[in-house]
Amino acid sequence: MSVFVLPVRVYLEDTDAQGVVYNASYFRFMERARTEWLRARGIDHDELREEHGVVLVLAAIKARFRAPARLSDMLYVSADVAETRGARVRFAQSVRRADPDGELVCEGVAEVACMDAREGRPRRLPATLVSELKQ
After folding, report:
1. pTM of the predicted model, to two decimals?
2. Could you tell me if 22 and 16 are in contact, meaning their C-beta atoms sit under 8 angstroms apart?
3. pLDDT tens-place string over residues 35-84
4. Could you report how far apart the first and last alpha carbons of the chain are, in Å?
5. How far apart (Å, rounded) are the C-alpha atoms in residues 84 and 114?
6. Nearest CA to 69 among 14, 131, 119, 121?
7. For 60, how many CA atoms within 13 A lie in the half-sphere containing its CB?
8. What pLDDT sits at residue 127?
9. Domain ranges of the chain
10. Which residue in 14, 16, 44, 80 is the catalytic one?
């Protein structure tokens, strides 16, 4: 499994009046990195729904804030699959400043559930998706 890193610039809309990134903004940054991680492996959300009848939804997220990011910072948001099991995928994520190996700003774990697109119930990950996730 390989780590995917998404560069993200901090804009005014991501910050409070003092120019510090809102806590919730980190969750958006991490969501983008997970989506782009999948996309880089040829996995598209629309294709999952249309061809496999499943959608991926965030079931849980945990974050630890290490240092504040600020307006105009360049952040590097990583996503990597830590575990796949049944109907769940657990991603390990981090946000670093100025460089992919730079200062750790935030780290998190996101648990994504596979759901039947029509019934809205948990469903095992399709075998083809599991093989893509494990590459």
Report:
1. 0.92
2. yes
3. 999 999 888 899 999 999 999 999 999 999 999 999 999 999 999 999 99
4. 5
5. 11
6. 14
7. 7
8. 85
9. 4-134
10. 16
Which CATH fold topology does 4-134 show?
Answer: Thiol Ester Dehydrase; Chain A (3.10.129)
Q: Alpha helix (H) ranges present in the chain? A: 23-40, 45-47, 127-134
E strand or H helix that includes residue 89: strand 88-97
Hey, how many other C-beta atoms are within 10 angstroms of the C-beta on 22?
13
Is 73 noted as a catalytic residue in this protein? no
Dist CA 43 CA 9 (whole Å): 25
> Pairing state of beta strands 74-85 and 4-9?
antiparallel
| Residue 66 CB contacts under 8 Å (≥ 6 apart), including other chains | 103, 104, 105, 106, 107
Distance CA 13, CA 64 (A): 22
- Between CA 103 and CA 133 the distance in angstroms is 28
Q: How far is CA 135 from the centre of its chain?
A: 17
